[in-house]
Amino acid sequence: MIETNIPEATKKLQAIVDKNQQKAGRSKSYIGHPAEYSGTVQAVRDRVRTKPPTPRDLLKRKKHWHTDFGVEIVDSLEMHNSTMAINIFNRLAEHTSAGRPVIWITPVGPMGQYPIIAQLINKLGTVDTSLIHTFAMDEWATQDGEMIAKKDYPYMTTFRQDMAEQFFDLLDADHQIPIKNRNFAAGKHLHSYEKKVDRLMNKGAGVIFTGGVGKIGHIMFWESTFGVRLSRSLAEQVLWVRGAPLTFGTIDQNETTSSASAPVPVFANTIGLGLFVKLRNYGRKHRGRVHAYFGLDNIEEPLKWQRFIAQCMLMMETADPSFGASYVPTMPGAYIIVRSHVHDSFFVASK
Q1: Residue 272 and residue 5: Cα distance in Å, rounded?
Q2: Could you write out the DSSP letters of every residue in 187-242?
Q3: How confident is the chain (351 residues) per 10-residue block, as mean pLDDT?
Q4: Please, what is the angle between helix 113-124 and helix 77-97, to 10°?
Q5: Strand order in the sheet with 267-271
Q6: Phi first, then psi: what are they for 36, rounded to 5°?
Q7: What's the confidence (pLDDT) of residue 22?
Q8: The dihedral of CA 211, 216, 221, 225: what is its sign?
Q9: For residue 265, which of 111, 105, 112, 155 has the smallest C-alpha distance?
């Protein structure tokens, strides 16, 4: 069974799986579900699809954007990675130099920023890594929120392994983030996130919320369907989901980016939209303590879907729980976007 911190939300998300189960021999299996959007989000998607916006339309500030939020346009994937890395590193240095602990929400995608951050930490020595507390935003899972069996997906690594390879293991011995400060979303570990985050906020922590944007407009594994089924008030209370059911679009995206088109898990553990809102509200009471940096970096042929999502995201006039990325501008920080997402059409010429 799916599990969240809100029983009513658990029931509604479990209903998604129950509705989309298909018979397979003597048992039933879930293989994904269609993405659903609110009327507001669907109208934006239709508008972008039928009348692509101009760069001026896309970069016009929207009413729901925080005054300290902006869009950073970069010219290449390399610039995307370095820009994101510098933003994150500067905040780590700022908070730890002031003696503040740091709540850092860490994604596995995009990941190009991590080796650069590790190099900066090693060479400059201006970040007190003992004050950094990382919280993985998601992880592959079974429907019950447990770790996937290696025998079922022998070709896949966990997000914990990916973080070790791309970041933690690249830090020098004297700049290691303490093991006890590294939090991962596998199994039942999500249960402890709220208590740990609250304890750090009570100590005046800085917050760096980082991530990417998925094929259906999600951040974390917060699928569009969750926002539709739960509505805003309930969605903004969900701090985590164990065994979150994924949409067809997200499954397809993950097969493209994570397994060379081999099957991937159809469930995940994830932090919820409620944690984003909780940290945002903390930032409203503590100016300068909370920032969000989200990157849109995929420019190669199989991943041009991100251009359409970027344009939809930039045309949103409000934060909507069925389009998680629309919440990012409500915090100080930035979208870091490769220029082609804004200045080029998302149409791909026939070959």
Answers
A1: 10
A2: TTGGGGHHHHHHHHHHTT-EEEEEEE--TTS-STT--HHHHHHHHHHHHTT--EEE
A3: 97 96 75 96 96 94 97 94 98 98 96 97 97 98 95 93 97 98 97 98 98 94 97 97 97 88 94 98 97 85 76 97 98 95 77 56
A4: 40
A5: 3-4, 240-245, 267-271, 138-141
A6: -120, 145
A7: 80
A8: positive
A9: 155
Q: Are 139 and 254 in contact (CB under 8 A)?
A: no
Tokens of 32: 């994904």
pLDDT at 141: 97
Tokens representing 206 are: 């800085």
Query: Helices (DSSP H) in the chain: which residue ranges?
Result: 7-20, 39-50, 55-59, 77-97, 113-124, 159-166, 193-202, 224-235, 248-258, 273-285, 305-315, 340-343
Q: What is the pLDDT of residue 28?
A: 79
Residue with tokens 């922590």: 205
Token duo for residue 342 = 């804004």
CA 2 to chain centre: 20
Give the pLDDT of residue 162: 96
pLDDT for the residue 351: 56
Architecture of domain 3-15+32-343: 3-Layer(aba) Sandwich (3.40)
Helix axes 224-235, 273-285, angle to 10 degrees: 40
Which amino acid belongs to residue 105? I
Extents of the domains making up the chain: 3-15+32-343
DSSP 8-state assignment for residue 285: H
Give whole-number Cα distances, 218 to 87, 214, 272, 350, in Å.
22, 5, 11, 28
Give me the pLDDT at residue 113, please.
Answer: 97
